[in-house]
Amino acid sequence: MIKAGIIGATGYAGGELVRILLGHKNAEIKWFGSRSYIDKKYASVYRNMFQIVEDTCLDDNIEELANQVDVIFTATPQGYLSSILNEDILKKVKVIDLSADYRIKDVSVYEAWYQIEHKSPQLIQEAVYGLCEINREKIKNARLIANPGCYTTCSILTAYPLVKEGLIDADTLIIDAKSGTSGAGRGAKVPNLFCEVNENMKAYGVTSHRHTPEIEEQLGYAAGREIKVNFTPHLVPMNRGILVTEYAALTGMATYGQIKEVYDSYYADEKFVRVLDKDVCPETKWVEGSNYTDISFKIDERTGRIIMMGALDNLVKGAAGQAVQNMNLLFGEKESEGLEFVPVFP
After folding, report:
1. Are residues 179 and 120 part of one domain?
2. Residues 6, 58, 186, 86: is their CA dihedral positive or negative?
3. 3-class secondary structure, 175
4. Residue 293: in which H helix or E strand, if any?
5. What is the Cα–Cα distance from 218 to 243, expressed in whole angstroms?
6. Who's near 253: CB < 8 A, 6+ residues apart?
7. Which pLDDT band, with edges at 50, 70 and 90, does 38 fall under?
């Protein structure tokens, strides 16, 4: 039985971790960490856990936690883990971090985009970027996993095969992305109030969103060179979901069958990536509450461009589900254990 601890268990991603791990046959949660709700019953914070979770929220003492569990999930703000993680902790326990602290290999890029000083840059190179479909073998032997962001997971998986095969010019890539409001976290913020979000749709972080360098770095590895993309996120009035529409110039003539064959060659054996049938566009409703990513594409012969589309649940495949997928790989479990739930509809 894998003993797990969660720091940040009362945020949206942390709550989703609890929900998923409760259904995992080989894992048990030993520590519900939450600085905001110390000594409060977890079920009083999330009433859906009434008579399911009887535990009380503890503090975020990672040193003590490391002595009690096999894996620690940190669903915490940027900068938290990098300020407390050290070699002594990693000698005792594996860490899966849902923040951006160890996703970007160049510390100067991280500090420029996130506007905070990185307190443990010596650990960045060791951290493995936890996108299972791409880094599966590296993940299996890691101590520290940088769990990818929600926008980035969807954006990367949607374009990765075509970038890797050189079928698109990666420098022409434009990513138009939409997210439900849970992606902004559970903290009280005026822009996320009901009256601000309902019946409204808006772009934000235009040219400056912090997921941009993460997307560029990972797709740059696929391209074999540095690339630059345009990434524009939008907030939409729904609870969950990411939808990306990506545009790029093809590097040569290509038919639907040729492109579909590439996607299938990359993802045919991937449990959680579904390449849709011709002319079927992804929808957030069809992946809600699941660990699936749905992908499709359309060739625009008139302009020589391709439109790639992807959808996932930002709290599952975009956060907690992916973290559990990483945990399964780390501990030799079936990769889909605890994650084989059908998307919720309606």
Report:
1. no
2. negative
3. strand
4. strand 293-300
5. 19
6. none
7. very high
Contact 177, 234 (CB under 8 A): yes
39: left (phi over 0), alpha (psi -120 to 50) or beta: left
Give the count of domains, the chain.
2
62 and 201 belong to one structural domain: no
291's tokens: 């660990």
According to the 3-state scheme, what is the secondary structure of 109-125?
Answer: HHHHHHCCCCCCHHHCC
What mean pLDDT do residues 37-50 have? 97
Same domain, 198 and 294: yes
Angstrom distances, CA of residue 212 to CA of 70, 130, 153, 176, 308: 32, 17, 12, 12, 18
What's the CA angle centered on 247, arms 244 and 252, to 5 degrees?
140
The encoded tokens of residue 329 equal 């790989």
Q: Domain of 104?
A: 2-126
Q: How confident is the model at residue 188 (pLDDT cuts 50, 70, 90)?
A: confident
Q: Is residue 108 predicted with pLDDT exceeding 90?
A: yes
pLDDT at 193 over 90: no
The span from the CA of 148 to the CA of 128, in Å, is 10
Q: Is residue 141 part of a domain?
A: no
**One domain, residues 70 and 122:** yes
Q: Is the pLDDT assigned to residue 40 strictly greater than 90?
A: yes
Q: Are residues 243 and 117 in the same domain?
A: no
0.90 exceeded by the pTM? yes
150 counts as catalytic: yes
Q: Which residues of 220-252 are buried (b: 16+ CB within 10 A; e: fewer)?
A: bbbbeeebebebbbebbebebbbbbbbbbebee
Catalytic annotation, pick one of 150, 154, 195, 281: 150
